[in-house]
């Protein structure tokens, strides 16, 4: 592997000792702590999530960060409101099953059984078939039951968070229960044939959910009212059905790797004197629907945010090899061009997102600010089309390349230098019409 050599490009706030300022040993310590079993998968609203937030807060304190304006601690707390499952019954051939059931829509009570006169059944085996099935929910003329193959279990958390248990900033925004037809998704752990009988019942009620982001800042010396944001999400999926005795979704790559980068960058830039104010934030509830970044973004004046470096899943080598990462929405601003120019004498390369069909630009925590014009991009290395550990209990530190993570963090630190010191300003992104 080529040695990563980063230049003292004009405007980059870099000293000859930068390598020692982002030591691999520290990267390993932080990511191992966040992805440890005792964090219980860091699912939002659980003791594991609270433990992770306390750890990140302590790291920000050690780095000497300030709380955000209006806050007295690094914990940015808020409430959201939405539907929560209170009881589920799934019976097949007279036997109760513990199969996950996900209701689609605003129904408070779902009760369906095999009845071909009023219910359509779909069996889906892959992500494309699942998306096609979900596309039918806006034009239903009868109830629909979607039987999901076991291989799709990794999609359950996202389906629950973004579709079934979607939450809202105000209780009054929770949709009323007016649906005539209902759709449910069932993880089909055993084949259900046309000869089998089944029934499913689920009740849901409105609940209040408390969430906590972790955020701190360095006030800019020359342009304190202009902000550069470094972010990642610290939540993950929590406890999943056991595989070989392991039920903890450690989320080492997704996104302990990005959160580790945020902490390391906070330590790196605290030793500098940035011209612009820097915010370092670990978001909660990304896996549930991006509620942490949504709330945070709503507290920011987008006109004052110069750039956002969202960092997600940098734990493995990208499809472009070592010393590389990709930037989502590369073509939407000159953010990536600026970063690459600041690395022009190095071996590191930033590439455009190689998976445009995955729509990753609007699937991560950068999206809320990007939609209102901020040059907010996600930096990643994930080979999302091939990663067998994504959203499984096998996403552990042992599957990651900690040296590669360290090199990426160094590249982000150096490549963002001219933006941090005020000599470069990325072009704005065209806002999304509401």
Number of strands: 17
Which percent range describes the beta-strand content?
25-35%
Mean pLDDT: 91
CATH superfamily of the largest domain: Zn peptidases
**CATH third-tier fold name of the largest domain:** Aminopeptidase
Terminal-residue CA separation: 46 Å
Enumerate the spans where pLDDT stays under 50 for 5 or more consecutive residues.
1-17
Q: What pattern of helices and strands is seen along the backbone?
A: HHHEEEEEHEHEEEEEEHEHEEHEHEHH
Number of helices: 11
Tell me the helix content.
10-25%
- Give me the Rg, rounded: 23 Å
CATH architecture tag of the largest domain? 3-Layer(aba) Sandwich
- Please give the largest β-sheet: 11 strands, mixed
CATH class term of the largest domain: Alpha Beta
- Tell the overall outline: elongated
**Could you say which structural class the secondary elements and strand pairing correspond to?**
alpha/beta
Number of domains: 2
Task: Describe the 3D structure.
The termini are far apart. Helix 2 (24-34) crosses helix 6 (252-270) and helix 3 runs parallel beside helix 6. Mean pLDDT is 91; it is low at 1-17. The strands form 3 sheets. Strands 1, 2, 4, 7, 9, 10, 13, 14, 15, 16 and 17 form an 11-stranded mixed sheet that branches. This protein has 2 domains: 18-66 and 219-420, Aminopeptidase (3-Layer(aba) Sandwich), CATH 3.40.630; 82-208, no CATH class. The chain is α/β, with parallel strands linked by helices and 434 residues long. The radius of gyration is 23 Å and the shape is elongated. It contains 11 helices and 17 strands. 24% of the residues lie in helices and 27% in strands.
């Amino acid at each position: 592997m080529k040695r990563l050599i980063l230049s003292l490009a004009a405007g980059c706030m870099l000293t000859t000792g930068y390598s020692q300022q982002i030591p691999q040993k520290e990267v390993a310590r932080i990511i191992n702590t966040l992805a440890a079993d005792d964090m219980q998968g860091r699912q939002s609203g659980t003791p594991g999530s609270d433990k992770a937030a306390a750890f990140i807060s302590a790291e920000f304190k050690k780095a000497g960060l300030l709380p955000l304006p209006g806050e007295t601690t690094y914990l940015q707390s808020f409430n959201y409101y939405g539907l929560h499952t209170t009881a589920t019954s799934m019976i097949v051939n007279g036997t109760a099953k513990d199969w996950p059931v996900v209701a689609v829509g605003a129904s408070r009570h779902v009760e369906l059984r095999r009845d071909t006169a009023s219910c359509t059944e779909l069996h889906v085996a892959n992500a494309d078939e699942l998306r096609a099935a979900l596309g039918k929910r806006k034009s239903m003329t009868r109830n629909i039951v979607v039987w999901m193959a076991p291989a799709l279990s990794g999609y359950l958390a996202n389906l629950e968070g973004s579709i079934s248990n979607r939450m809202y900033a105000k209780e009054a925004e929770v949709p009323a229960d007016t649906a005539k037809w209902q759709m449910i998704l069932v993880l089909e752990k055993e084949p259900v044939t046309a000869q089998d009988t089944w029934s499913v019942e689920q009740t849901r009620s409105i609940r209040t959910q408390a969430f906590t982001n972790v955020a701190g800042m360095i006030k800019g010396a020359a342009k304190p009212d202009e902000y550069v944001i470094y972010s990642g999400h610290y939540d993950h999926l929590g406890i999943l059905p056991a595989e070989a005795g392991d039920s903890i979704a450690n989320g080492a790559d997704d996104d302990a790797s990005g959160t580790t980068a945020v902490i390391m960058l906070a330590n790196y830039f605290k030793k500098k004197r940035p011209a612009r104010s820097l915010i370092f934030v670990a978001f909660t509830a990304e896996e549930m629907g991006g509620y942490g970044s949504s709330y945070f973004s709503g507290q920011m004046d987008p006109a004052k945010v110069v750039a956002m470096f969202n960092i997600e899943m940098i734990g493995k080598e990208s499809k472009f090899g070592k010393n590389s990462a990709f930037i989502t929405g590369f073509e939407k601003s000159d953010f990536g061009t600026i970063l690459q120019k600041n690395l022009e004498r190095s071996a590191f390369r930033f590439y455009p997102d190689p998976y445009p069909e995955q729509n990753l630009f609007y699937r991560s925590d950068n999206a809320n600010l990007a939609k209102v014009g901020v040059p907010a991009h996600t930096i990643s290395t994930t080979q999302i089309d091939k990663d067998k550990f994504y959203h499984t209990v096998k996403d552990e530190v042992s599957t990651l390349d900690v040296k590669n993570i360290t090199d990426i963090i160094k590249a982000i630190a150096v490549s963002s230098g001219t933006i941090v010191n005020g000599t470069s300003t990325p072009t704005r992104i065209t806002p999304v019409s509401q």
